[in-house]
């Protein structure tokens, strides 16, 4: 699996969790004390950036969820 594929999967998970909480990207930035640009949230959710552990931590604080929730997914089966 390519790095970009994992970034897309994690990004979709971030977006899914944010939407479940009923929070916009701008509101999420506010909950993160505004130390991140809203366009960065968009890039994370679309898988266009490699998210750091610290960014996941900050997202988890903003969404008030455990960090492990971002990684709670199954990887697609490898095709031979």
From TrEMBL:
One of its GO terms (molecular function) is DNA binding. SUPFAM superfamilies: lambda repressor-like DNA-binding domains. It comes from the Bacteria. Pfam families: HTH_3. Residues 14-70 form the HTH cro/C1-type domain. Gene3D superfamilies: lambda repressor-like DNA-binding domains. This is XRE family transcriptional regulator. It comes from Chryseobacterium pennae.
